[in-house]
Design a protein that fits this description.
about 400 residues, alpha/beta, Rossmann fold, 2 domains, 6-stranded parallel sheet, globular
């Protein structure tokens, strides 16, 4: 039997998909018998009362600074943790500034340093990591860490281009979904969603579309209501929005201006949205760019077809037959795809089945945790042989 590993997982606890993936992975590794520490500024809610040990990073503030020294605080915490717990491997999520923190900690620890593995997620490569202010340090640190992963082939290509890394240095391990939490309901009950609009329990007025995001500009959230307004010329669809962020108010204002304000319900941040999502007729994903799209995967696992833009790694997630992807920004084509997708009950049911089957076959948590485990052991073995 192979010995359990002592692993430290570093993540931003509240940064959308990467925080979810890091937390779930920490839990999955812990369930497989590894000793797992989660290093973050706050404990993600999902990890309360689990076997994962929380290591809170304290970031000092001072009137002297405009910005708190987060990267150095992570490095210092890793140094202290590695000395206290003999950590074998540190798995850092999101390269900025975690790759630099890892490098710094490894320098201080010297030969006793754990193996540093960084998972790149998205804008840490395409925006921040590639930014002239951060590029030199990020590229240097990534080049030196023992292992690198991306959730999609698309992001691997972006990382190769941005940092001059050899493709073989980067392992693609797709993100994953909790197939029990996100599952089709025994019986779809559209009334559950209609109730969100204050309707009675009678027949729902029409199909309900769903969207979950942090409403940042990269999600192009205004396109959501542009699409809805076009869909409603044919089908009396409505839209539920989950999440919050800088563009949410603008989305609601645009919906009113388009005359579809009453057909949009913004629920804000909701941890318990899985039970609602499962009753939706379609998930809208209008992102400008997306290395993967965890929210789209959660929809597929729930048996909800995805209608969105063909960008980044999204086609690696939303495969043939589980929705429709159109060119970025083509709101007319997207509206057309939604109308076609929700109007034919048999075709819709087939898409829902394909979506769930794809999530089960390719994106289960078990499969991903196993792949990470194999990769970690490979990295550690290669390091022992001195080849990394
Ligand atoms: O990079 C970001 O903008 C944030 C990041 C996150 O923490 O959610 O999103 C990225 O990582 C997710 C998890 O791997 C992916 O599902 C998202 O597609 C990716 N976002 C972008 O590429 C814009």
């Amino acid at each position: 039997m192979t010995a359990p590993l002592r692993i430290a997982v570093v993540c931003y606890p509240a940064l959308g998909g990467s925080g979810v993936i890091a937390s779930e992975l920490a839990l999955g590794l812990c369930d497989r018998g590894h000793r797992v520490h989660l290093v973050a500024t706050a404990l993600p809610e999902r990890l309360h009362a689990t076997g994962v040990r929380f290591e809170q990073v304290a970031v000092p503030t001072s009137p002297v600074f405009d910005h708190a020294p987060y990267g150095e605080a992570v490095a210092s915490h890793l140094i202290e943790l590695a000395r206290r717990e003999s950590i074998d491997l540190v798995h850092l999520h999101y390269a900025v500034p975690h790759a630099a923190s890892a490098l710094l900690a490894a320098q201080v620890l010297g030969a006793a340093a754990p193996a540093m593995v960084v998972t790149l997620h998205g804008t840490d490569v395409t925006a921040l990591g590639a930014h002239p202010s951060l590029h030199a340090v990020t590229a240097f640190a990534l080049e030196r860490c023992a292992g690198l992963t991306t959730p999609s082939h698309y992001l691997r290509g972006q990382a190769v281009d941005a940092f001059g890394l050899a493709p073989a240095r980067i392992e693609v391990i797709p993100n994953f979904v909790d197939l029990e939490r996100f599952a089709p309901p025994g019986r779809r009950d559209p009334g559950q969603l209609a109730a969100q609009f204050g309707d009675g329990r009678g027949d729902p007025a029409g199909p309900v579309l769903f969207h979950v995001s942090n409403f940042r500009p990269i999600k192009r959230p205004l396109d959501l209501v542009e699409v809805l307004a076009r869909v409603r010329r044919t089908v009396p669809a409505r839209l539920i929005l989950v999440g919050d962020g800088p563009e949410r108010a603008a989305v609601e204002a645009r919906a009113r201006a388009l005359g579809v304000g009453d057909a949009v319900r913004a629920l804000g941040r909701r941890r318990d949205f899985a039970g609602l999502l499962a009753h939706a007729d379609g998930f809208l994903l209008t992102s400008e760019s997306e290395s993967f799209g965890v929210a789209a995967l959660e929809a597929l696992a729930s048996g909800v077809p995805v209608f969105g833009y063909r960008v980044g790694g999204v086609p690696e997630v939303v495969g043939e037959g589980c929705g429709t992807l159109v060119a970025r920004g083509d709101v007319d084509a997207l509206a057309h795809a939604v109308v076609a997708g929700v109007s034919d009950a048999r075709a819709h049911a087939a898409m829902a089945d394909v979506a769930r089957a794809r999530a089960e076959a390719l994106f289960s948590m078990n499969l991903a945790v196993e792949r990470y485990e194999i990769y970690f052991r490979h990295v550690l073995a290669a390091r022992t042989r001195g080849s990394l």
